[in-house]
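Subgroup meeting minutes
Present: P.N., E.W., G.H.
Scribe: E.W.

1. P.N. recapped why we're keeping a running log of single-chain structure predictions: easier to compare across weeks, and new members can see raw inputs and outputs side by side.
2. G.H. added today's entry (275 aa).
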Amino acid sequence: MKVSFIRPRQELGPYIESFWVCESATGMPPTDRNLAVPNGCAKLIIPYKNSLMGTCEGRSGVSREHGFYFVGNRETATLISSSERKTGFIGIEFSPHGAFPLFGMHMSETVDEKIFDSEVLFGRWGRQTRETLGNLEEVEQKVAFIQDALVRLSRTTQQDNRIIDFCVKILKRANGRVPLKELERKTGYSRRYLDLLFKKQVGLPPKVLARIFRFQNFYQKWAHGLSYDIIMNQLYDYYYDQAHFSKEFKRMTGHSPQEFMVEVSNEFGRRLVLK
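Output recorded in log:
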């Protein structure tokens, strides 16, 4: 399996967190537990060779070859699988508040354990984009085209998300360790109002996004090869106790921390972190 990262065009910098192409000669390894864990990012998934199966919270969905799909923010991991043949797909991960200004939809409507067909979600734009992507032969052509299409969207957006941008940056810099009262104090807005803004522009309330950022701090340490013992020594800076950490970690991955770090390889998830 190979994951190649792409530098987004400058105009897309404020919206895109990560842009990559995943390729495998024999499909997603069936014994590898290929997990896409919560990272606060909504995604576009574009399979160009083979179809992908995603299973989340007991619900399954299929991203079909030559399709064009949107995955909203979620709190639980998705297990990704495929048939054993040549596989390739493009992934575009938006910053937590990056999809809203581009697509203008209420992001809470996309927070679900399913995959949305972009033709249904985005109407004419989704249909035309899917058709053009399907007609392009080379991966490089597909990458260039989807960037062009998103740049054109960015030039028409008039959504104001300065408050959310400010809050997300604070939460991310602190790895989620910011009390909501601090966001209220810094912005001058009530928790209720911030919850409404976050649900509209991120899909999740600030408390949940902070929880994802806390988890990601430990998940990235795992991806970089830190041992279970070293990671556990740092948990009290982020969680009340080990039970609290274990509960949130299992919610995000489907596994206890020790089981995940010792027994689950998840090379797909690891490579998405090791940019």
